[in-house]
Specification:
It comes from Microbacterium schleiferi. This protein is α/β, with parallel strands linked by helices. The chain has 11 helices and 25 strands. The chain starts with a strand and ends in a 12-residue tail after the last helix. The structure holds flavin-adenine dinucleotide.
């Protein structure tokens, strides 16, 4: 079959290589990643890593011995900049470092990069983003500097809130500035948003909703003209929120530059089908860089983009099999987690287009679930400190089963016992 080139050496890229080997492929595999580190997991970077509770060995995905043992050529600290494709699907990739890599099969697992804030002042010292290990090392050091007492987090999404929780646990004064009228509003219900607002406030964070930002204010540059340090974030109404440290977490953008170069369809991500095949029918793509018609979107039109480890891994398995000529279909129930202080949120399914929610349990106890329905059928749930409920719901969704809203609301009946009917005919079971 020849050489497989996988661009992007993170969750999806490494999993494509691993699955190809598991499926019996023995041909050469080259995995290229531009980061200078061994492939690692990103989720700990906004959680335990910032508290200095982990060492690099805790977050790496696979050891050097594993790559060697599997005969997978890992090239780090080099970026694929151009790809030339022949008629027969083979081609050659050129890297920034001057490598020319021949391939017979191609996988794109290029992930996403942070969305940049476009107000003045983002280049002052003390302004951080968090996407990769280098960002995490620099933010970890800044958080441990006692001079940085006041932390302003721009963006009340999962990563911003995780960082806010870490900063509060280190006794920093924390202010979260969120442009929308509620926290994590793009993903969760009003009930879950309200819970997180109260929970962060209880833990001592200030949260400003509907915050319109004007600029980041810095001090005076030194005599040599070196960048000065941030001192505040100014809102459109003139309020200045004092800051020694600013962390921006306003979402990510799929990295599609190579796909565009190859003429593949792109729509907010590389468009792939249920076999992880791109529009040319032979390149595969997986993970944060893709959009696809997710079966759990239950008829919501348009491709879905999912930024989660589970999606990267499950789609990568499909991509690997497709590269080997099999045609498995993506069927994994989407799921995600976020750890904020002692609150473990686990989300199963996709809530897009819900028309009813049921709150099971009491949010004030910090142990509850919000179940989402569309046309009477269960489509998703947010579970806070309820791992057993999460598993029950994820399994139910996987089997196309449901839980009636009435049963869901009754905490006297264990959720597992309430899983009964298949989804209604209007919501096509995957
Ligand atoms: C701080 C943080 C916390 C997170 N927490 C959670 C969580 O709690 N739960 C959860 O489910 N998900 C979480 N996520 C999201 C999760 O990490 C991503 O969904 C996952 O990493 C996606 O994997 P991926 O392989 O598709 O992309 P990425 O992890 O983005 O990897 C893509 C890789 O490709 C490389 N690359 C891109 N272009 C090129 C090129 N041209 N040449 C060479 N290399 C290239 C990039 O440098 C990168 O290393 C978190 C993400 C971050 C940043």
């Amino acid at each position: 079959m020849g050489t497989t080139l996988i661009v992007g050496a993170s969750q999806a890229g490494v999993q494509i290589a691993a699955t190809m080997r598991e499926l019996g492929d023995t041909d050469p595999i080259i995995l290229v990643g531009e980061e200078p580190h061994r492939p690692y997991q990103r989720p700990p970077l906004s959680k335990k890593w910032l508290k200095s509770e982990l060492v690099p060995g805790d977050v790496i995905l696979r050891t050097r011995e594993w790559f060697d043992g599997q005969g997978i050529g890992l090239i780090s600290a080099d970026r694929v900049v151009t790809i030339h494709r022949n008629e027969d699907g083979s081609g050659e990739a050129s890297t920034q470092g001057g490598r020319r890599l021949h391939f017979d099969r191609l996988a794109l697992a290029t992930g996403s990069s942070v969305r940049r804030l476009t107000i003045p002042g983002t280049d002052f010292h003390g302004v951080h983003y968090l996407r990769d290990a280098d960002d995490a090392l620099s933010l970890e050091a800044a958080l441990h500097d006692p001079a940085n007492r006041r932390v302003v987090v721009i963006g009340g999404g999962f990563i911003g809130l995780e960082i806010a929780a870490v900063a509060r646990s280190m006794d920093k004064e924390v202010t979260v500035l969120e442009a929308a009228p509620r926290l994590v509003g793009r993903v969760v219900s009003e009930e879950t948003s309200a819970f997180y607002l109260a929970a962060h406030q209880r833990r001592g964070a200030k949260v400003v909703l509907g915050a319109s930002l004007k600029r980041i204010i810095g001090g005076v540059a030194d005599a040599a003209g070196r960048r000065s340090h941030v001192v505040a974030v100014e809102l459109a109404d003139g309020t200045a929120v004092p800051a020694d440290l600013v962390v921006i977490g306003i979402g990510v953008i799929a990295r599609t530059e190579l796909a565009v170069q190859l003429g593949l369809a792109v729509d907010g991500g590389i468009v792939v089908d249920e076999h992880a095949l791109a529009s040319d029918g032979r390149t595969v793509a997986a993970g944060d860089c893709t959009v696809m018609p997710n079966p759990y979107a239950l008829g919501i039109p348009g491709p879905t983009r999912i930024e989660s480890v589970n999606n990267a891994l499950e789609q990568a398995k499909i991509a690997a099999a497709s590269l080997l000529g099999e045609r498995p279909t993506y069927r994994s129930v989407p799921w995600f987690w976020s750890d904020q202080a002692d609150l473990k949120l686990q989300i199963a399914g996709l809530s897009t287009g819900y028309d009813q929610v049921v709150v099971r349990g009491r949010p004030d106890d910090e142990r509850f679930a919000v179940l989402y329905y569309r046309d009477g059928a269960l489509i998703a749930a947010d579970c806070v400190n309820q791992p057993a409920e999460f598993l029950a719901i994820r399994n139910a969704l996987g089997k196309g089963h449901t839980i009636t809203p009435e049963a869901a609301a009754d905490t006297d009946i264990p959720l597992k016992q309430s899983i009964t009917e298949p989804l209604l005919a209007t919501a096509e079971a995957p």
